[in-house]
Amino acid sequence: MTEAADRAATIAELRRRLARLGGLARATPQLSPAGEAPPPATPPGAPEQPEFRAERVADGTAWVRRVSIDLGPFLERAGAPAPAGAGQLLHLAYAPGDPSWGEGLPSARDSDGAVAVLDIETLGLRGSGVLAFLVGIGVPHGSRLHVDQLLLRDPGDEAAMLTAVLARLSTPWLLVTYNGRTFDLPVLRSRCIVNRLGIAPLEGRMHCDLLAPVRRLFRDRLGACTLRHAEVLLLGMEREGDAPGYEAPARYRAWLSGRAPDALEPVVLHNQLDLCATMVLAARLAAHVEGRLVEPVHPADRYHLGAHLERRGVEDTAEVHYRAALAAAAGPWDAHAGHRLARRLRRGRDPGGAAEAMAIWSELWRRQPHDLRAARSLAVSLERAGALGEAIAICERCLRLCAEIGEWRLSRLRGAPRGGW
After folding, report:
1. Residues β-bridged to residue 67
2. How far apart are CA 355 and CA 385, in angstroms?
3. Which residues contact 120 (CB under 8 A, 6 or more apart)?
4. Is the peptide bond before 47 cis (omega within 30 degrees of 0)?
5. What is the pLDDT of residues 97-110, one digit of tens each?
6. What pTM, to 2 d.p., does this model score?
């Protein structure tokens, strides 16, 4: 009898460990005589964290902290008039020709609750350590951000926390993240699969990952396009009291081991500030695209903004920014903008466009004698205009220049034609 009891206890312990790792289906709760499931027991010795309250869900108990944050001071400092609406976010994330654009969009695009911002804190960046222990979800209402933070109080409660997360993501139809496309969403998706939860709220939704437009518009200004760089250089935000992201795993483990709540509170604050910074950054990007540029204006900003608007079909405004970048004469962005502008003018219907394009290429070649792209385009335009003597003179000069440059450098020049210069 004792042997059977020991074996049953061993099996129960193994099943408990497998369940905590997500390897077993969630056990059916034992019903009381009245037919109701008993309230989940708090794990013995589970750590406490101020302001996190228990929320009963289908899979147990989730621990939630609710705060409401006024984004007004952050927006004012960043030079953004208001939080970005859903329509503005869509223009940041999708081009009009994108297959996802306009499919199944609600009519009330900018209504409260249409947008949610997501950020997670995990135990690692790769492998089995990618376990989300804190998930922040913010929903903007006017200039305020209503934030729910869900904390994994015990690793065995992961299914309950994820169930609460999925419930909060089921209503908003547009999700805003920073690098969430390749990190936050895949982490949540994989953990839901491990815990045998449906991932429908994470799939098939419109998603504005701000990392892509930040790289597209500000990579020359920022260098490393991290959220921290964007906060400092685009928003003028300086953090106080939060912990750096790399400290989060160690602080959480220390908190689980019995450390005081002070060990985890800076991580909770860090998560809140990430959510605020993401929403303020979205507003700053929307204002930038609409013409209220980040001050002081970096020489590359107008060129990248023009290219962004041209890809989205706003061609007249793109041309304005190309002209401004060309007039600023700050290389190499003036040359990039000049080439794009000249090609647009040559393809346009304006009879004077071809002549203006030749003038631009001539000026670019004057500024930079090694700009073979400008020389080649100028020679082609002169040939089409019937000025064969001038075109041949440019070609002969370029051939002499090519002989001086050397083959290995020629192959690395921007815009090299397939057949060589």
Report:
1. 147
2. 9
3. 132, 134, 135, 136, 184, 187, 188, 271
4. no
5. 665 555 545 444 55
6. 0.83
